[in-house]
Automatic annotation (TrEMBL):
InterPro entries: His_Pase_superF_clade-1, PG/BPGM_mutase_AS, PGM_Phosphatase. This is Histidine phosphatase family protein. GO terms for molecular function: phosphatase activity.
Amino acid sequence: MVTKKIYLIRHGQTDYNLKGVVQGSGIDAPLNQNGRDQARAFFEAYKEVPFEKIFYTGLQRTKQSVEGFLNLGLPHEGVPDLNEISWGKYEGLPMTPEENQYYLHMLERWSSGDLEYAIEGGESPIIVAKRLRRGINYILSQPEKLVLVCMHGRAMRVLLSVLLGYDLRYMDVFRHQNLGLYLLHQRAEGSFWLEKYNCGAHFNQQK
């Protein structure tokens, strides 16, 4: 028996995404035109799904990504505990070759099991997982059974690892794209299984 069904999506494109600039939780960038088009494509494909409530983070790019559903008058709520990881002093900086090398080094530290490691001034995967558990437990405590949740790339990887029981060292197996969809089902005993993985089929339905 399924107790909850969660449609989990990443926000649409921002100019920071487009230019390869680090966002994180400290940059509250809006969607650009392409991001709005991506959000519209997702809405057109899934507007008939009888969502009972919409959740987004404390950053405007996630709320803007589900605006079509909010305009239908569906109940909705921001959950700041689902915010993106903080990239500390690197937020707002372009991804230069030097910065990219540091980023790859950090990913290597994480995949080797050093999950307490964080960029200077930022959050570690362990800290993010704790925060996300708090956020998702709040959502799971709500009475609604069919919900849409809009989040951020790295945070989604951590959350999917938490929900599906993956070691955080392997979080990068969960790929993401702007407005890509993961569809999760919760079983009666509380565990989750995945029906859709980073699905972008809705982009192919555009006229």
